[in-house]
Amino acid sequence: MQRRSDRRPVTEWWRTVDRWFLFGFIALIGFGIVLSFAASPDVADRIGLDTFHFVERHAMFIVPAVAVMIGVSFLDDRQMRRVALVVLLGAMALMVLALFFGLEVKGSRRWVRIAGVSVQPSEFAKPAFVIICAWLFAEHLRRPDIPGNLLAGVLFAAIAALLVAQPDLGQTVLVAGTWGAMFFMAGMSWLWIVVLGGIGVAGLVGAYLMLPHVANRIDEFFTGAGDTFQVDTGREAIVRGGWFGQGPGEGTIKRILPDSHTDFVFAVLAEEYGIVLCMVLVGVFALIVLRGLMRSFREEDHFRRLAVSGLVTLIGLQSMINIMVNLQLLPAKGMTLPFVSYGGSSMIAVAITAGFILALTRRRPETRFGHVRFAAPAPMQAAQ
């Protein structure tokens, strides 16, 4: 049993961390481990790799991901902003580099090779972008003469421009939705809502008219013409699974699903384990998002409130987009399911996001009458 007087860092961390968030993230990692065995061996066999190639690589990335998540969760607010700034600047520099020297996959340049490992910089930019925007919005709320909202808008425009240039419309929509939600929670006026809504619609129309691959995906989604093999196969896998699934290892549709280990891992879960377990997975994501929003609504510090709400919105929107693509409710986006899909860059980036959430929601010590106690979120403090 831990003593209240034990002040060791690990003991202090365990006493102050939000365990609902912690167990939620661990549950998602557990889903990812199980589904890596279910979804990836057939993909590896099809492309001539060792049967458990992707399973082994997925397991290999879990160790650094958990270490990153726990390590980041020890940061205080000032350290977090500094780390986020370094990560954001580095990721943006690599995104520019990817446009000229990156690996081209399916017509997009989103990856760069570092020390023999393919890295997708945009994945790391997302959580850092949320933290920096939350700080800028909070600074404007603290001192209206600081142009925090304007700077956050300029930063969003820069990130969006890099994503469109790759091109990666799915990530652009994800970042835009998260930034818009944070701006709204920071007190966006109705005028801004109308203006930004109009810009968003104009951007989607422009993407449809100017980017052939975007137009093709949208046309395929609404007409059913063209190459819809993967989305149709994913839907068939979900239907075949029924309520309780075909059983572990008994799925057959997954064997011909090209991206069963990444974009369509939810379809594999449905085929082998059924809709019931799919609802459990959705429930874990809902727990993380709803608890984050509840914690942020009670938070008086503007930075923490906006950062937590922005980070859980990022996770919630990404998971929702992935699942809706599997259910044929959205055109294919090429977006992973956080902590569940295969992908080293995605897993480490989501671990950073989770670490930020754990750090921001840890109970903070208050000193009263010479004693330290852990209390609810402290009154608003000036952002550093």
UniProtKB/TrEMBL annotation:
Keyword Repressor appears in the UniProt entry: no
Membrane spanning residue stretches: 20-39, 59-76, 83-103, 150-169, 190-211, 273-294, 306-327, 339-360
InterPro entries in UniProt: FtsW (IPR013437), FtsW/RodA (IPR001182)
Keywords for this protein: Cell cycle, Cell division, Cell membrane, Cell shape, Cell wall biogenesis/degradation, Glycosyltransferase, Membrane, Peptidoglycan synthesis, Transferase, Transmembrane, Transmembrane helix
Enzyme type, top EC level: transferase
EC identifiers of the protein: 2.4.99.28
Membrane topology: Multi-pass membrane protein
Cell compartments where the protein resides: Cell membrane
A molecular-function term among this protein's GO annotations: lipid-linked peptidoglycan transporter activity
A GO-annotated cellular component: plasma membrane
Involved pathway(s): Cell wall biogenesis; peptidoglycan biosynthesis
Domain of life (superkingdom): Bacteria
Catalytic activities: [GlcNAc-(1->4)-Mur2Ac(oyl-L-Ala-gamma-D-Glu-L-Lys-D-Ala-D-Ala)](n)-di-trans,octa-cis-undecaprenyl diphosphate + beta-D-GlcNAc-(1->4)-Mur2Ac(oyl-L-Ala-gamma-D-Glu-L-Lys-D-Ala-D-Ala)-di-trans,octa-cis-undecaprenyl diphosphate = [GlcNAc-(1->4)-Mur2Ac(oyl-L-Ala-gamma-D-Glu-L-Lys-D-Ala-D-Ala)](n+1)-di-trans,octa-cis-undecaprenyl diphosphate + di-trans,octa-cis-undecaprenyl diphosphate + H(+)
GO BP: cell division; cell wall organization; peptidoglycan biosynthetic process; regulation of cell shape
Similarity field: Belongs to the SEDS family. FtsW subfamily.
Protein name as annotated: Probable peptidoglycan glycosyltransferase FtsW
The species this protein was found in: Roseitalea porphyridii
Name of encoding gene: ftsW
